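agent> Task received from the user: take the single chain below, predict its 3D structure, and emit structure tokens. No templates, no multimer pairing.
agent> Plan: (1) validate residues, (2) run structure prediction, (3) serialize to tokens, (4) report one or two observations.
agent> Step 1 OK, no nonstandard residues flagged.
tool_call: predict_structure(input=
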Amino acid sequence: MILQVRHIAKEIAYFGTSVTLKIITKDSYSKWGDAAESSSNASKTAFVQVLTQEDELVEEGIFQAGDHIFWFKGDETNINRGNRITYKNEDYEIVETLEHDIAGTTYVLEARTRKI
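)
tool_result: status=success, residues=116
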């Protein structure tokens, strides 16, 4: 199992593609409760999985065909819910992040996203 996860992390480095991570920061709130946001961008490498109608997450109704899962190496930072990923000039919001770890070490981060 450890070798499989390490192999996946190496494949992300070798076969991944460049994406832009937009890190969203909520700076303040208006008197109506609306959040004022600022953002910064970071270039990352990810393996991209496009969900199809046959994927379990789509069949369960959690995501739609065409939504994306971005796989990152475990040492990447800011792969958090609410941040956004730009890939092929399209923006996707991270709605769920899963850490795949073994013996307390995270080797792969899975960012499940929806197109904005």
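agent> Step 4: summary for the user.
The chain has one domain: 2-115.
agent> Done.
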